[in-house]
Amino acid sequence: VTSENFISLSGAKQFRLICDKYCQNAGINPNIIFESDSPAAVKNMIAANMGIGFWPAFSWEKIDSDRVRLLAIENPVCSRDLLITYKKNKTDNSKAEDFFIFLTKYFESSAKEEN
Q1: 40 in any annotated domain
Q2: Whether this model's pTM surpasses 0.85
C-alpha cells in the first residue's frame, strides 16, 4: 500500500482526518496525488483507476462497477461513529421527531445487515 497513489477527500473533511489517523497508526504515509472536497470526484478518480483510496461503503454505498474492488481493512479496525440528535423541547417538532425515528430505524437495520 505504501507504494500506491492515493485519491482522497481534502484535509478539511472529517472523513479524511479519520483516514489520516488510521494511516498514521498503521505507519503509512500515503502518497496523495489527488484530493477534492467532492466525494463524487474522489469516487470517479478511484473508478478511473487513478489510484486507491478509502471508500466508506456504508455512506458512499457499494459501487456497481467491475473497475473498483472494495477490500475490508482488518488491521487496524477502521470505524466511525454517527451521532443523530434532535431537540425535543422545540414547539411543533413532530416532523423532526418522525425523521429522527426514521433515521434511527434505518441505521439500526443497516447495521444488522452488515453483521
Answers
A1: yes
A2: no
